[in-house]
Prior knowledge:
The chain is an alpha/beta fold.
Amino acid sequence: MTPFDSPGQSQRIDILVVDDEPITRTLIKAHLEKAGYGVIEATDGETGLAQYDQHTPTLILLDVMMPVMNGYDTCVELRKRISDQSLPILMLTGLNEMNAIERAFQSGATDFITKPLNWPILTQRIRYALRDRRQFLELQEKQHLLSEAQRIAKMGYLYIDVSNWQITLSAEVAEIIGIPHHNEIDLNQLQTLLTEPDCQRLLQNINQAIRNNGQYLLDHKLRLPNGQEKVILQRGEMRQEHGRRVIYATLQDITEQAKAEERLLYHSYYDVLTSLPNRKLFESNIMEQIDKQTACAVMFIGIDRFKAINDSLGHRNGDKVLKEIANRITPYQQQGYRVARFSGDTFAILLPNTDTNQHQADDLAQEILSLMEVPLEAQGHELVLHGSIGIALYPREADTLDKLLLGADIAMNLAKGNGGNQYRYFSTTMDTDAQQRLALEEDLRKALRNGEFELYYQPQYNARSRKIVGVEALIRWHHPTQGMIPPALFIPLAEETGLVTQLGEWVLYTAAQQGVHWHKAGHAIRLGVNLSAKQLALSHFQDLVQDVLRHTKISPALLELEITESMAVSDFDNTIQTLDQIRSLDVKISMDDFGTGYSSLSYLQQLPLNTLKIDRAFIKDITADGRNGEIAKAIIAMSKSLNLHIIAEGIETAGQYDYLRHHGADEIQGFYFSKPLPVSAFNKLLR
Ligand code: C2E
Ligand code: MG
Ligand code: MG
């Protein structure tokens, strides 16, 4: 027994007894109270209504025959007033009055009990009525929860009567498909909400379920009458119900999920910054080609010196540059090429389905190189970019995804290493080059620890007196297996790997110490030390120089740091600031390799320089009989006007020496006088 069936301990069930006969009321009250119910009495219909309002009983026993307002009218009135339609109203009628029974039900009674009352039957009927009510309420609650759940899940159901294709909708479905308050539609109406292919698919699924007594599950779009579009997940099942064949289906509005999924999918396949496909999507594009075994070309596009741009102009400007480049290459998608941002500053293009792709790739690479050169603006600066492109051809040079990607990467890095602003095709022989480079990089890391570096010194002579006035420190690497490796081969590698700052520090200390030795031995010669761009960009570079001065006690005026034009212009303002600080320590600055870079007079004017070194490129054209020296002559004249000290580098012949001395070079450095020498040999030379 439950509290609904009979009064429980905690909650008493009250029954309202409406009867004009006091004896009947008393007897009923006595019996019901004995059975554990609470009883409220009313002598007539009017009082009955009032008592109901006051006590809201769980069940009403209502006599039919009452004066003023009879039981039927009271019942009708009660049903009108009471929102709880499940409230059991049992009518007490005369025995076997069919008419009365009929009227009782019409008035809204739940059940009837005939008088004279049989007490066990009365309590039994009451119990049944209460149990029915409980079940009804439970069902109602469940339905409510279900429809709440459906509402929250944006879900509802529908029935399709297979015999006439009439569709019955739940309120939720009607809401979802944008026709609220409809509970029936026909197939045609449903079809108008579907796109042609979705409609075909749905009908196929339904027909198959009908044939196999089976189920179906599919998602489809719905275009609502108001123009809105929804994504629906439909799950259907064929059922036999009361001899009728129906499709019972649930519909769930998964528009939000679909959108979220789309977003997720987007983020996993597209780059947020540039909106271009990312590496993942690009790789799957390549795989499609490989699966079809159709020739294609994979092109990697790198931005030359991107790291320097990023470091000096800031990441926001770096992003701006990436976006701009992306914008320039995105239009190639319309030509059927697949364009992607492959990684950091590497973009990629797939040229699919071409047998003649080498020509196509040539043209495209040329076009992109010139596209990249179009100046762009960043932080008020006009920036001219260059690109390096690597191309790998499938299946000619690389026949797997990995080989294609590696190949394009190797070729691109070779293009970069070769000065940039060019494109290269990958060939299988490059593979070993790249591996060698990797091995060299490994060795370079160990070299400093293992003391494999040595400084050589090349003297610089006064052009007139032919006396040694300076010396340039030049690094040498004694590789354990490969012998001596020239700086031109490993300095760029050290730059790329960042090892150059450590290396540079070692050079500076070692050279300064050597300078102090010579000074102590009576040779006050100036000591030139080459810097790399990375060192100059170090925020604490002037501190480092100061430390060197303090620890080695070298006279600052004897130290001259060599920079190059490209180092100076990559971050001009910063360079000036750093150089000013160095100069304030009394250390000298020289411009190395002048003439090979920007050779801009305005740059030279702004930089705090002491010395200018004319590059060997202009010296080597000067013939033994002293001709072809026009450029060198012009550089000397210009330097004089800027009050710069001039050193001519790479003098190999007497003719070159004569020419330069004649036209005003202050100092001479070159094989004509001496090659770079190890300390011991240089000491002999000094003696
Ligand atoms: P650089 O600073 O312009 O050095 C002059 C280069 O020209 C040296 O090459 C020197 O051996 C060479 N040279 C001098 N006279 C003649 C000549 O008459 N004929 C010819 N053909 N060559 C001559 P090296 O030692 O191979 O150095 C190459 C470059 O490596 C240097 O050019 C410099 O940029 C860099 N480097 C060398 N040592 C260091 C260093 O300690 N730190 C940094 N960052 N770079 C260094
Ligand atoms: Mg130099
Ligand atoms: Mg030089």
